[in-house]
């Protein structure tokens, strides 16, 4: 193949051959080969240019996405494979990235754990996030989550949860907060310990909340039920919310 034209553009070099085929290569690749117009290339030379150009594009892509976010080795490989790269090309790019400490799973784990701790996530939620990011389970299992730190994080979000569910009766409030802790990744033991800190509502507050829930249940259920059946449905609804039978009977 004979080069008929070389045009240096802003971000690449366009090479046109006598068979009208065009090859766009990066400037880095262009400087690595002695190329000029009317030069004839063997198939081996052309393939070498093409392979180096593909690797260069892949590396530029990897550097671009890495500049925007952290990636585990697994997720970076996944991104590169999705670009149609071969294992050989991916291995080469990963080796370069590791050489510049741009891919380091140990550092990535440490940074992500510290970030999640700052958001007061519990151990289970952090472990799941690491797995989602492509960190191998064997590496995730090695991470230590000191109980003292887990309790400190749980205490950090207690007042927010206590305020969020304050409108509920005592039993329902404890249930909501317990489940909220589990969703944030805390163990059942820590969740149970936290709900024991909840101050029980005084009788007056509890009855006021009961009256509000009674009215809501009555309006909702009266569309379908009447008489004794309505009364029974309201009773069941309020019991399900954790109210005491004696208090419900007073309101009814």
Total of DSSP H or I helical runs spanning 4+ residues: 13
Spans of at least 5 consecutive residues whose pLDDT stays below 50 are none
Number of strands: 3
Structural class assignment: mainly alpha
Strand order of the largest sheet: 1-2-3
| Rg over alpha carbons | 32 Å
**Overall mean confidence score, pLDDT:** 89
Strand content range? 5-15%
CA distance, first residue to last residue: 94 Å
Overall, the morphology is: elongated
> What is the helix/strand order?
EEEHHHHHHHHHHHHH
The description of the largest β-sheet is: 3 strands, antiparallel
- Quaternary organisation: single chain
Helix content: 55-70%
Short description:
18% of the residues are buried.
Describe this protein with a few key phrases.
252 residues; mainly alpha; three-stranded antiparallel beta sheet; 13 helices; 3 strands
Question: Any overview of this molecule?
Answer:
The protein is built from 13 helices and three strands; from the N terminus they run βββααααααααααααα. It is mainly α and 252 residues long. It has a three-stranded antiparallel β-sheet with strand order 1-2-3. β2 (13-17) and β3 form a beta hairpin. α2 (43-68) crosses α4. The N and C termini lie far apart (94 Å).
């Amino acid at each position: 193949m004979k080069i008929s034209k070389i045009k240096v553009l802003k971000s690449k070099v366009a090479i046109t051959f006598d068979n009208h085929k065009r090859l766009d290569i990066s400037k880095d690749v262009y400087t690595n080969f002695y190329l000029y117009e009317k030069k004839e290339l063997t198939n081996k030379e052309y393939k070498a240019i093409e392979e180096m150009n593909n690797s260069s594009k892949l590396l530029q892509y990897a550097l671009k996405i890495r500049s925007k976010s952290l990636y585990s080795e697994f997720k970076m490989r996944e991104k590169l494979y999705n670009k149609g790269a071969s294992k050989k090309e991916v291995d080469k790019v990963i080796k370069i990235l590791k050489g510049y400490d741009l891919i380091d799973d140990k550092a990535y784990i440490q940074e992500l754990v510290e970030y999640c701790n700052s958001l007061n996530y519990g151990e289970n939620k952090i472990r799941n996030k690491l797995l989602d990011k492509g960190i191998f389970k064997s590496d995730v299992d090695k991470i230590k989550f000191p109980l003292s730190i887990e309790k400190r994080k749980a205490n950090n979000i207690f007042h927010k949860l206590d305020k969020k569910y304050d409108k509920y009766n005592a039993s329902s409030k404890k249930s909501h907060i317990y489940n909220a802790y589990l969703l944030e990744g805390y163990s059942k033991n820590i969740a149970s310990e936290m709900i024991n800190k909840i101050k029980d509502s005084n009788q007056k507050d509890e009855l006021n909340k009961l009256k509000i829930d009674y009215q809501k249940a009555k309006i909702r259920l009266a569309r379908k039920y009447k008489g004794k059946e309505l009364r029974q449905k309201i009773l069941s609804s309020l019991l399900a919310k954790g109210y005491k039978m004696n208090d419900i009977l007073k309101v009814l």
